[in-house]
Amino acid sequence: MKLEASLTAENINQKLLSVEYAVRGPILQRAQAIERELEKGVPKPFTRVVRANIGDCHALGQKPFTFIRQVLALAACPELAAAAAVPEDVKQRVQEIRDDCIQGSVGAYSPSAGLSLVRTRVAQFLEARDGVPASADDVHLGSGASDVIKAVLTMFAEQVDGKPSAVMIPVPQYPLFSGTLSELGLVRADYQLAEEQAWALQPHELERAYLQASEAARVRAIVVINPGNPTGQVLTRENIEEVIKFAYRRDLFILADEVYQENIVSKPFHSFKKVMHEMGAPYSGMELASFVTCSKGWAAECGLRAGFVELLRLQPRVAAAFRSARAVMQCPTVLGQCALDCAMKRPVPGEPSYPQFAAELAAVRRVLADRTATAYHTFNTIPGYFCNPIDGSMFAYPRVEIPERAQAAARELGLSPDEFYCLRLLEETGVCVIPGTGFGQRAGTFHFRTTILHPRDEFQHMMDCFRRFHQTFLENYS
Amino acid sequence: MKLEASLTAENINQKLLSVEYAVRGPILQRAQAIERELEKGVPKPFTRVVRANIGDCHALGQKPFTFIRQVLALAACPELAAAAAVPEDVKQRVQEIRDDCIQGSVGAYSPSAGLSLVRTRVAQFLEARDGVPASADDVHLGSGASDVIKAVLTMFAEQVDGKPSAVMIPVPQYPLFSGTLSELGLVRADYQLAEEQAWALQPHELERAYLQASEAARVRAIVVINPGNPTGQVLTRENIEEVIKFAYRRDLFILADEVYQENIVSKPFHSFKKVMHEMGAPYSGMELASFVTCSKGWAAECGLRAGFVELLRLQPRVAAAFRSARAVMQCPTVLGQCALDCAMKRPVPGEPSYPQFAAELAAVRRVLADRTATAYHTFNTIPGYFCNPIDGSMFAYPRVEIPERAQAAARELGLSPDEFYCLRLLEETGVCVIPGTGFGQRAGTFHFRTTILHPRDEFQHMMDCFRRFHQTFLENYS
Ligand SMILES: Cc1ncc(COP(=O)(O)O)c(C=O)c1O
Ligand SMILES: Cc1ncc(COP(=O)(O)O)c(C=O)c1O
């Protein structure tokens, strides 16, 4: 008789054992347990958990855009169009989409790169953004940006000259990258963002990280997250040029995670594509993968799972291999593609949906402007906190002073100081944020990431919690 | 100045270069080119292309189920509920789903395994199907079954005792499996289905395939597709028991692709889970992964991308690793989850949506019963064709006699005889089917796979094309 399972921790794909994703990690599990305790009436020093762990605007109260949702509804159930009072431009959009679906059904598989209509809209969006030609053939839709980011990284999972391949990622980073590199067996080459320079990428640090990783690995690609998650900065044009020059010199493929490009308060956004183009040869001939998603931007439709990569200047055999691997998975969700279509071509003045759309957009923008300003102000007026300007995204990543005695207490529990801090914060205030350990931070510094798009009252409550909690924390451990 | 791209056919992940997916391969590309030629007025011996390459019911004219689509529409846009004349049970279902979405929005991320409501519904469906307890905790939703099949296979991508891992797959198989094994670097251990025994799995053949692959690899798992794609057979209970005993003896993890379990005309479907359970110890203690999808069954919502795996009796650390890797990708599409919810809990007598639902279901069933019978009859009355009984799925996989002279003509062109056959069929009749090479077939035999769910007239036209074409083909090459 067999005693053991056939799949065990010893013989499972060992790379999976090291995959971590802090955003949905132990602190969230504890928060969920506390929610259940609260429901059961267990007494706590607070009445509800405030979740600030994940960048999900709808979960934080942002209302879905009416235009998008009406399009989705009628794309799913065209028969409702007769009865429902929806504007003409919604009906027309639905017609355009259905014309590109086989038999007009969003329930038919689409081409594996996505509906031709939607890819064309994406290309038009990119052209309008950059003033640089874009082709629908370079656009590959996915089930969220995560899906296509993983697909692109998969291409680098190969030994070169007997060395494993490495990919440069920022510290701090969004843990999709560290997690996916782990799963793929790609070596992480960490470069530090300069906190003292508003989280800029410093060429000498890129060079250092490259050289260090090159001892044991072949560095193949560099990931840049702009605007930053968790850091919220928007890179200057000069800084992007520096990164491009560095990547060119070191023959690195650039992966530009630009998913927060529309979540910016007032700075200009420069896409890597545009900057490369404007720099001219040889930079304008480099390969590039740039990622955008419906989960972010004003639409913020995380649950619909629609994103894309624009893949530029791939060699034909490389592009063909990418396409084949994608085709095996059939296609991204067609209703997600409908939402992406709306995000790429929004209502414009003169169209019946425009007034409501414009009002909804203004509300979203107001929330972002208000919360980034308030968070920045709050974090920089809490003694022991420091926070760089928050240009955009939907996060803040303040640095927090943690007294030596608290660090010792953390060690006792086998936790890092920032994990200990976030856990205490959760237990004492109900606020759930993610420790810097989940994203990375310079040794000896401690941070947490919080989302900041909560409704005003809840947001203010959360800010008050940080202030009060930190004061008590310092008193307890000084 | 750099001369080369940084990512090339030489340094890309070499495993991607061998990924093939015939269902969307060269024959489909040629069909699309012919469609464009027809549009431009290029004369052809036919007026339209009949696509029979992919198992996509909506693309073949099946109407979406009204209940599902009304639920989707209102889940996306609840405001329409007031105006639109939808039945009360639709509204109630939407309310239940929205209660499980954060802030009631399908645009918020769900838990990465899927909404708890939907996983509970899946468990209830499985319990009702098998009379065996099922737990929502064992259910993991994905963007189609493809997504979770790949995720499960990923767990086996590990060397064991210095040998690469192998997975047993049937021949013929659905090329998702061969493609994904290629991408993951898993060795294929092919076992032949017995065409002369209605595509049964023969224990001695399983044993042979196991032993042969074991010379160079460690065989870890076995994939069974039941009902079969491309073969359309439904396995007998006895045959399933034999497979389970074999897997037990050889310590193999069973992956049961049971996506066509509801696409059966009249035979009983036995799930691997139920059979294992009824066999009792030690078999009832084996691990199992079983796959179901909304793309198939009566719903046939391919474009919505919703499927699931029930993962039974995994070791806790294995389950945890699986969960972490899934979490990195956030979650499957929430609108897809809504459709799955409807597929798992359909309207029942007494509910307002039931009469229409029942009528729609009966129509779908009639089409399947009619087409399987007609295809079976037709293929067995074309001289030179042979076709096993088609119990279900939505495909036929007839064996075709290809004269020696035609085989020589194929070799001239660098094609396999069945590729040549399908290409000629396409060029002369406009019917697009996939050569057996894409699925696998015993050496020296030739097949093609055709979907069979076209509208009656188109279906009959296609059957006539096969008959006429084959006659001429035999005449030309005899
Ligand atoms: C920087 C960054 N990239 C990519 C993603 C992936 O988003 P999705 O898969 O929902 O499109 C996220 C999500 O939070 C993100 O923050
Ligand atoms: C046998 C089999 N398994 C799995 C799938 C995957 O389907 P999906 O990813 O659309 O759920 C298919 C699709 O055709 C199939 O035929």
Automatic annotation (TrEMBL), chains A, B:
SUPFAM superfamilies in the record, alphabetically? Answer: PLP-dependent transferases
Aminotransferase class I/classII large domain residues: 86-463
What EC number(s) is this enzyme filed under? 2.6.1.2
Matching InterPro entries, A to Z?
ALAT1/2-like (IPR045088), Aminotransferase_I/II_large (IPR004839), PyrdxlP-dep_Trfase (IPR015424), PyrdxlP-dep_Trfase_major (IPR015421), PyrdxlP-dep_Trfase_small (IPR015422)
What pathway or pathways are given for this protein in its record? Answer: Amino-acid degradation; L-alanine degradation via transaminase pathway; pyruvate from L-alanine: step 1/1
Q: Name one GO molecular function term.
A: L-alanine:2-oxoglutarate aminotransferase activity
Name the chemical reaction catalysed here. Answer: L-alanine + 2-oxoglutarate = pyruvate + L-glutamate
Which principal EC class is assigned to this enzyme?
A: transferase
Q: Which residues cross the membrane?
A: none
Q: Which Pfam families match?
A: Aminotran_1_2
Checking CDD domains in the record gives:
AAT_like
This protein's UniProt keywords: Aminotransferase, Pyridoxal phosphate, Transferase
Name the cofactor(s). pyridoxal 5'-phosphate
The UniProt subunit note reads as follows:
Homodimer.
Family membership = Belongs to the class-I pyridoxal-phosphate-dependent aminotransferase family. Alanine aminotransferase subfamily.
Q: Which PANTHER family match?
A: ALANINE AMINOTRANSFERASE (PTHR11751), ALANINE TRANSAMINASE (PTHR11751:SF29)
Protein name stated in the entry? alanine transaminase
Q: What is the lineage of its organism?
A: Eukaryota, Metazoa, Ecdysozoa, Arthropoda, Hexapoda
